Amino acid sequence: MAREQLAVILQNSAEHPPPADPSPSALRHWFEGIQAPTPIAEGCSFERVECTAAGGDLTTRPPCDQTKLIIFYHGGGFLFGSSRSHRVITTHLARLANCAVLSVDYRLAPEHPAPAAHEDALQAYRWALSKGYEPKSIVLAGDSAGGNLALSTALRARDAGLPRPSAVVSFSGAFDLAGDGASHRELADAPLVNRSMAQLATSLYVGSGDPRSAQVTPLHADVSRLPPTLLHVGTWELLRDDSVEMARRLQAAGNTVELKVWDGMCHDWQLFAPFLDEGMQSLEEAADFIVRAFASR
Question: Which of 189-227 are b and which e, b meaning 16 or more Cβ less than 10 Å from the residue's Cβ?
């Protein structure tokens, strides 16, 4: 049933396929065009803060516990997306986890190639620490490219000698930028993100650099000594094996990892919450993981 529901929801994106030879501006326009008007959680307020050069939105929903913070990095292949485009996720996480959410804007490719987004992601974590948030009260989260940024930020914080956050959460994380996993071949025509689009995003962000470099993906980094991590991914998406392999490597390095592969779900299905039950269920389970992480530190 879930896949049939998704087929209906995805009809709009099928009627608006990605441009054949897209410029960054065309891709950004396309992304805005396929977004459904999903309702955000009621009662949320947004404060613009200078957590990076591009800024970000600090989302609160009184009477939430504002001493606890989710730092959320939006997806969009490092090319598009914003703090506003992902409010359906961030506001519901604020509601469900009863805490503040910092939705980070970061420099986008190709105007700002790698490792600009990764540098900004770490800067947002430094900003939170400078504002007095305790590391045990911070969770890093993100979807797609943002999932990469969330886990990469935990790595960069570790390597910089910063205290580690309480946990990491990734939805449909883009970890395999080289496209080595089997799902990149078996699901090359998956909805929302297909193989050609993923390759374009990588080429514009990484350029002539190495897509397997630890500077742009945690998949090929030393992933020891990381906080507990939750990975959600769908069976009907190109990036399925990104999370499966990432979970395997995290576990092999001795970390605590929870992986859930959602049957019939496409890339970033959380963006369709609450119209899609599984979208809200994923957010609910992530919020439960986050609350448990806060309580355990």
Answer: ebbbbbbebbebbbebbbeeeebbebbbbbbbbebeebb
Task: Look up the pTM and report it.
Answer: 0.93
Residue-number span of the structural domain to which 275 is assigned:
2-296
Q: Which CATH number does the domain housing residue 68 bear?
A: 3.40.50.1820
Instruction: Name the domain count of the chain.
Output: 1
Distances (CA, A) of 126 to 96, 258, 284: 25, 26, 27
Q: Which own/partner contact pairs does 246-251 have at CB distance under 8 Å and 24+ positions apart?
A: 246/151, 246/170, 246/173, 246/175, 246/218, 246/219, 249/219, 249/223, 250/223, 250/226
DSSP letters, 15-27, are HSPPPSS--HHHH
Across the beta sheet with 45-49, the strand order is 45-49, 56-60, 99-104, 65-73, 138-143, 167-171, 229-234, 257-262
Annotated catalytic sites, by residue? 144, 237, 267
Asked if residue 110 lies in contact with residue 177, where contact means CB atoms within 8 angstroms, the answer is no
For the stretch 236-262, pLDDT in tens is: 999 999 999 999 999 999 999 999 999
* Tokens 């939170």 belong to residue: 128
